[in-house]
Every structure is written in C-alpha cells, then in structure tokens.
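Feature request, filed as a ticket because there's no other form

It would be nice if the structure record came with a short human-readable summary line next to the tokens. Right now we just get the raw output. Example of a typical job, pasted below so the devs can see what we mean:
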Amino acid sequence: MRSLVKFTVLMVSFFAVSSQAFAAPHVERLARMRLADAGETEFVPVFSCATEGDRVKQIKFRISNQPARIDSVVIWFGNGTKQRLNLRQYFAQGSESAWKDLPGRARCVKFIKIKGEAIGAVLNTPAIIDIFGVVE
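Raw output as currently delivered:
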C-alpha cells in the first residue's frame, strides 16, 4: 500500500512540474506608459515576477495614439541585472516594434525605463506606449 501511495505522489508531482515546464508561451501586456516631452524618461514597474511561472523571453512596443520616438529602453530583471536596448526608432501612430529577444532564458522583468518623446500634431499630449512580452 505504501508503495502505491509513493508512486501516486511521484506521478502527481511529475505531471505538475512537467505541465509548468511545457506551458505554451503567450503574449501579455506587461505595462502601459506615457511619453511626452523631448528626452523624457518614463519608468514603470512590471509585475512579471508575481508568480514563479511569469518569465519573459521577448518584448515589443506598440504606440497607440500618436507618433513617438524611442531612443533607449532599460530593462531591470529580478536578479538585479539590467539590459539596455538602443532603439533610436520613430514609430507612427498604431505601429509597433519587432520582437526584441532578452538574453539567456526567459526572465523575470521588474522595471522598464523608456527614454524618448511624443512627436505629434496634438500639442502637450503624451504618446501612449504599450509594452508586450512573450511570457512562459
């Protein structure tokens, strides 16, 4: 009887771990930020570290309401390291960047900082930037 209980516990544990390990990656919006004046830096927290399974392997940026320029992006990871992306790219209203790979395996993202500016016909209106991630 004991060996049956041990076997059952072992199989349940195996399937629980394997289902987490092989969960299909999906796209989630990680954050939304507003970017206004030239050279402005916007800093937002990202909660991809809330659970053990929320690990990001790629990110992209979508500009929704008016054109913007993104000069650079700094991404802080859960282990304290950071990565800088020098985009230096103009985005039309409604456009988005290509997917940007994060180094190594999928990682916990704590904060994202974007430096750039809104370039629009509507004066004093910030560009809204949605940040999406491929989450495992």
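Something like this underneath would help us a lot:
DSSP finds one helix and eight strands in the chain.
The domain at 25-135 is CATH 2.60.120 (Jelly Rolls).
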